[in-house]
Write a structure and sequence with these properties.
The chain has 413 residues and is of the alpha+beta class. The protein is built from 13 helices and 21 strands.
């Protein structure tokens, strides 16, 4: 079995992509999705968030929700809004956000290679979220939410994708947030073979976002294999929908922290405690860290630049040397008393897409007592953690731009 393979994608009909494309299912609440899909009968939100078509208050995990998703998919197929390619293809997918551009490959990735960790993970998953995706896949008999993957340095693949995305696109959508999504269908048999062989030569792929979707695909594959006495390994359920970008093009933004109190200390006492392990310098301007080991701290009306002592940064532990770990292990836990950032209500997280003004706003309003700005985790750090078969701390990465749902889906024949 190949690491990836082409597939006959389910896509918006020509000129219908703008009506269909939708934000990922997990970035909108039900209320937000209902507002976004109002007067948009062909929005993919009717498939990815089908509770919006049921009475307000419907449990999003109720059986009728998944049935509604299947009903809505059938409607879009019957109306010709979605059509399926006649033969297996790959698809070049370009994302443009402001001055940033990245071009990747839409492909079906091997569940077997996920199971053996050739497609590498860096997060724990929650059973309830896995269950949701399993039920969605089974109801639709399709995977509609792509897993975001990264491939290591591969100039040959970069070159093929650059050439494939040079002509007139098959879909071109600029979303409400200004992000442009462009798709090119790759049908040439020789190019398909080149891409498959180039990926087969790679030692690994890396999950950037989509751990629950990939875990769910693995569970669906295992169940269908067990129920299929003629299982061969070639069935489509042995693969999952993915978009794979070169790691050097991917953009991880900072994932910042805000605290509701200073653990009983005043600002002076708090800064004194921090000074035991960090240098502390007041700053007249907001502090956006420019290197690992550097942090911005905002207290009401004042920014500070923090740098952790070099001797506290481990060189041989890919998890402990992450900035999110350094801040947690040497400041948030020992100074603020927040040992479990997953569950402690005194800490919250702010994606870097919101900028430093959001940190100031949360503190100046009195809602929060302090905010920390972090240097963004690097893809090389994520890959090192995954290679070591370790798990990253919560809220370590914020990937932008986000993929769209609905532009290419993977049907399980």
């Amino acid at each position: 079995m190949s690491l990836i393979r082409p597939f006959a994608g389910l896509r918006p009909a020509p000129s219908r992509a703008a009506e269909v494309a939708a934000p990922p299912y997990d970035v909108l609440s039900t209320e937000e999705a209902r507002a976004r899909a109002k007067d948009k009968p062909w929005s993919f939100l009717h498939i990815s968030k089908p509770e919006i078509d049921l009475p307000v208050g419907t449990d999003p995990y109720a059986a009728e929700v998944y049935a509604k998703a299947a009903e809505n998919l059938d409607k879009m197929l019957a109306a010709g809004v979605l059509t399926r390619d006649a033969a297996p293809c790959y698809y070049a997918y370009r994302l443009i956000m402001g001055g940033h551009s990245q071009t990747g490959l839409v492909a079906a990735a091997s569940v077997a290679d996920y199971d053996t960790n050739r497609i590498r993970k860096h997060e724990f998953t929650r059973p309830d979220k896995e269950d949701d995706r399993v039920r969605q896949i089974d109801a639709l008999n399709a995977q509609t939410g792509p897993v975001l993957l990264a491939y290591p340095t591969a100039p040959q693949v970069d070159g093929i994708l650059a050439k494939a995305s040079g002509g007139t696109p098959d879909a071109d959508v600029t979303a409400a947030d200004g992000i442009r999504h462009t798709i090119w269908v790759i049908r040439d048999a020789a190019v398909l073979s080149q891409l498959t062989a180039a990926f087969d030569a790679m030692h690994a792929l890396y999950i950037a976002d989509g751990h629950h979707r990939s875990a769910a695909a693995s569970r669906v594959a295992a169940a269908r294999k067990a129920a299929n006495p003629k299982h061969s390994g070639a069935e489509s359920y042995n693969y999952f929908l993915s978009v794979i970008f070169p790691h050097h093009q991917m953009k991880i933004m900072d994932y910042n922290r805000v605290m509701s109190d200073l653990n009983g200390m005043d600002a002076e006492g708090f800064l004194k405690r921090i000074g035991e392990k960090f240098s502390v310098q007041p700053s007249a301007a907001p502090v956006k860290p420019t290197k690992p080991g550097e942090f911005g701290l905002y207290l009401p009306g004042q920014w500070y630049r923090l740098n952790i002592r070099a001797d506290l940064i481990p060189t041989n532990d890919p998890v402990a040397r992450l900035d999110v770990s350094l801040l947690q292990n040497h400041l948030i836990a020992p100074v603020l008393g927040i040992a479990d950032p997953r569950r402690d209500k005194r800490i919250d997280f702010v994606g870097g897409i919101r900028g430093l003004p959001e940190l100031e706003k949360r503190v100046n309003s009195g809602e929060m007592a302090a905010a920390f700005a972090l240097f963004a985790t690097r893809m090389e750090d994520l890959m090192a953690v995954a290679d070591a078969n370790e798990v990253m701390p919560p809220k370590s990465t914020w990937f932008e731009p986000k993929l769209a749902d609905g532009l290419v889906s993977h049907v399980l024949d």
